[in-house]
Design goal:
This protein is about 45% helix and about 20% strand. It is of the alpha+beta class. The termini are far apart.
Length: about 575
């Protein structure tokens, strides 16, 4: 909100107020303000000036006037106070009138009233943005850290998305906002303080954190639909009530630029002579190396130069190391005689034919996160959560959300599948106790992970790495969730182990592997019901396409038997 401190314009202000009183007639005026002051020009240098007039009990409800006063053109929007307040409270008219309080405005009458409504509106908009972040990054929601500037710039850019022609006039304001940020942020900070008092956010070291209360609320599918549908009325009513004065003002101030756009290819981005501020640069996710902005756009080469070489001369090698559904690369940085290895994982969107076999394969047993964005979020969120709980996982070094890239510590080790293969190849009487001990320890780790209400999702033996000192690392969390079907983790692990066994002579080996895992799981206080469920038909059906029936039957029966024995002992 701006204030009119210039005595030179008092005469014009009074004429505007007189005309507003004439329009109101016998009704009481609640407020009068110059609005939509998003140009770097002062309000009285503008060719066309907009005025919002809020009137208590105004019979026409809504009406607009075009008036010339002292050679200047004024668009005056008159709106009933009840309608205006409902637009502020819940977007009755898609915020066609309420949004006038988002941009700088200059009150002539009712300054206190407008300020209260400004804070009320911004509080609602901030809450919507917080809910949208929780919806878009469900696994990361309780780890995201937000600077207050995010709300200021995201609200502005949301209005440009609704009405793109605003970009012509708003470019000037966005360009100089950083110089006047504190003034423009004051309303949002007041709104955030109120949300903190209501327990919907918290502050930590100057960052905004989303509360569990909000995160739980947005899990409701109805809430997701409501938030996604809000832009439709904004677009409609903003166009109906705001397009004419804004269009005239924009064209009058930007005639040359506007005319040029009539000849451009609209697929290309228009150059407005100003770089808009990306709101996502004020939203951060944690890594082992510190916070990383969602706006980060570093690629593999850029990461290697910045984070590995750190300005020194050196050799960088990038090798693809597999990945059917994702691109995985091993980055080697050689500085002097030292070598550092980092793994880079690019999360591709699964669509079309690539996704169909997966959904068909697991139908009725498990749903998969498909989008690259969702899987990247899960990878980062669950990794950090497990690391904080003391589990051995690779450190997340950097995240480039826009590139769908995660850079993580490279773990030197052997996958557990190699131990399973040694069991499969063992002759009768050959000692495999060391391999079975590893599987026992993995079962215990699973139980401890499940006790934190985390489901790993993809628990193939390939996703457990064993270092030379025997330390077991868990990797690959792109299908992991907080909460969910813990029996799925057990079924994936056991039936994938069975895949490596010989089809007709390995039932005893399958039972040995399953028993070792189950012993470890129960020793780690895992719920025996999860073991029993893993033997159910809905899981054996899913994995029967690559594990032989005798092996499946041996593992399934042992899982069910475990439940029966446990029940008898109880």
């Amino acid at each position: 909100m701006k204030e009119n401190n210039s005595g030179k314009t008092n005469g014009l202000d009074n004429q505007v107020l007189d005309f507003c009183r004439h329009l109101a007639g016998s009704s009481t005026i609640s407020s009068v303000a110059y609005v939509d002051i998003y140009s770097t020009k002062t309000s009285f240098e503008r060719t066309i000036q907009e005025v919002m007039l809020v009137i208590h009990d105004y019979p026409p409800r809504m009406i607009s006037y075009l008036k010339a006063i002292n050679g200047k053109t004024f668009f005056i929007f008159a709106v009933d106070q009840w309608i205006f307040e409902r637009d502020v409270e819940r977007g009755l008219l898609g915020e066609a009138f309420a949004s006038k309080l988002i941009f700088p405005y200059l009150p002539l009458l009712g300054k206190k009233y407008l300020h209260e409504k400004e804070i009320e509106l911004k509080k609602r908009l901030v809450l919507e943005l917080i809910e949208n972040l929780a919806l878009n990054f469900p696994e990361l929601a309780n780890q995201i850290q937000i600077k207050p500037q995010y709300f200021l710039y995201e609200v502005y850019l949301n209005r440009i998305r609704v009405f793109p022609l605003l970009a012509y006039d708003l470019a000037g304001l966005m360009g100089c906002l950083e110089q006047n940020e504190d003034q423009e942020l004051s309303g949002y900070k007041n709104a955030l303080q109120q949300l903190e008092a209501e327990g919907k956010i918290s502050f930590s070291n100057g960052y905004v954190n989303i509360s569990q209360k909000v995160i739980s609320k947005v899990q409701n599918p109805k809430k997701r639909f409501i938030n996604m549908s809000k832009n439709a009325p904004r677009t409609l009513f903003t166009s109906i009530f705001g397009v004419l004065p804004q269009l005239m003002s924009i064209v009058s101030h930007n005639t040359e630029t506007f005319l040029k756009t009539q000849r451009i290819n609209w697929v290309r981005q228009i150059n407005f002579g100003c770089k808009f501020i990306d709101p996502q640069k004020y939203v951060y996710i944690p890594t082992s190396e510190g916070l990383v902005s969602l706006s980060d756009r570093v690629n593999i080469k850029g990461f290697a130069k910045k984070m590995l070489l750190k300005g020194h001369d050196g050799d960088i090698q990038v090798e693809p190391v597999g990945g059917m559904l994702n691109d995985v690369y091993l980055i080697k940085a050689h500085i002097d005689e030292a070598e550092r290895k980092v793994l880079a994982k690019r999360f591709k969107d699964w669509a079309g034919f690539k996704w169909f076999p997966l959904s068909l394969w697991s139908f009725g047993a498990r749903s998969f996160a498909v989008s690259g964005q969702a899987r990247l979020s899960k990878e980062c969120a669950i990794n950090e959560l497990l690391r904080a709980e003391g589990f051995n996982v690779p450190k997340i070094l950097h995240v480039s959300n826009s590139q769908r890239l995660v850079f993580m510590e490279f773990i030197e080790g052997e996958s557990l599948s190699q131990a399973v293969k040694r069991i499969a190849a063992a002759e009768i009487g050959q000692d495999t106790s060391a391999e079975l001990d590893l599987i026992d320890r993995v079962g215990e780790i699973f139980a401890k992970v499940h006790s934190r209400n985390i489901v790993l999702g993809d628990t193939k033996p390939e996703n457990m790495l064993i270092k030379k000192d025997g330390t077991i690392f868990l990797i690959d969390f792109e299908q992991a969730t907080q909460g969910g079907d813990k029996a799925w983790d057990i079924a994936v692990f056991l039936y994938y182990c069975g895949h490596h066994l010989q089809p007709f002579s390995s039932s005893n080996k399958a039972e040995s592997i399953a028993k070792a895992f189950i012993d470890g799981y129960l020793r780690g206080d895992g719920n025996v019901n999860n073991i029993q469920k893993a033997g159910a038909a809905k899981y054996t059906r899913v994995f029967s396409i690559f594990t032989m029936p005798p092996i499946m039957l041996a593992i399934s029966n042992l899982c069910k038997k475990t439940q029966i024995l446990e029940t008898v002992n109880d």
